[in-house]
Amino acid sequence: MIVAIISLGFIYYACRFGIGPTCEDPGLAFIEIGTERLYLGVPTDHRIAEGAVAALGDLSGERLLALGSGNRLLENVRDLAQVSGGIVVNDYEGTSLDAIRQMVSIGMGCSLFPELYARAELQNVEDVRLLEIMGWTETRAVGLYFRQSSGRREHFAALAAEAKRSATTLGIRPIGSG
User: Fold this and answer.
1) Residues 172, 97, 13, 148: is their CA dihedral positive or negative?
2) For residue 72, which phi and psi values (nearest 5 degrees)?
C-alpha cells in the first residue's frame, strides 16, 4: 500500500522507505541518488514560448505558480522569483504537479517542473512549453529516505546504490556533477 505524505513532498511506502527530494526531517536518513534539472513551463502562447531558453530577465514581473507550503519545489520557485524579479502567486497554490501543469496551460502563470516529471508527463502535451533557464543552474537532489532508527540501513543502502545505477541510464546526474 502506498501512502502519500504530501506535507513532506515525497512518497513513503509500506516497506518503510521513500524516494523524493531532500528534506530536513531529523528522523529520516537520506541517501542521495542524483540530481534532476528544473525546467520552466510556460503556456504555448506565452511571449517567450518560441525559444528553447528563457533568460532570467524574461521572468521579471511574471506570475510564478508553486505547490503549497512544505514542498521543496516551492523553495525553488521562490529562489527563481528572487533572482529574476518574478512574482510568486500566493492566491493559487497547486496541490500536485498535474494541477500546476493545468494552471500553466490556461495561462495563470509559469512554473518549474522537475526533469523526471517533465519527461514522463510533458513530452507530448501541446499546451505547455518547457524551457531551460539561462543563468540559473539550480537543480534538485533526489534520494532514498528511511527512518534513522531503521535496522535495515544496509538494505536501503544497497537499494540506493542500485537506484543510482538505474538513474544514470535515465540521464539523472550523480550529485555534484551539475
Assistant:
1) positive
2) -60, -30
pLDDT tens string for the chain (178 positions)?
Answer: 233 333 344 444 445 777 777 777 888 888 888 888 999 999 999 999 998 999 999 999 999 999 887 778 899 999 999 999 999 998 877 788 999 999 999 999 999 999 888 988 888 889 999 999 999 999 988 888 888 888 888 988 898 888 888 888 877 777 655 5
Cell 543552474, located at residue = 137
pTM: 0.80
Where are the strands (E) in the chain, listed by range? Answer: 2-5, 10-13, 17-21, 28-43, 53-55, 63-67, 87-94, 111-114, 128-134, 139-147
- Bridge partners for 40 per DSSP: 112, 131
Torsion of CA 24, 28, 33, 39, to 10 degrees: -40
* Residue 37, strand partner residues: 139
Where do runs of H (alpha helix) occur along the chain?
A: 72-84, 97-105, 115-121, 153-169
Q: Which residues pair with 134 in a beta bridge?
A: 55
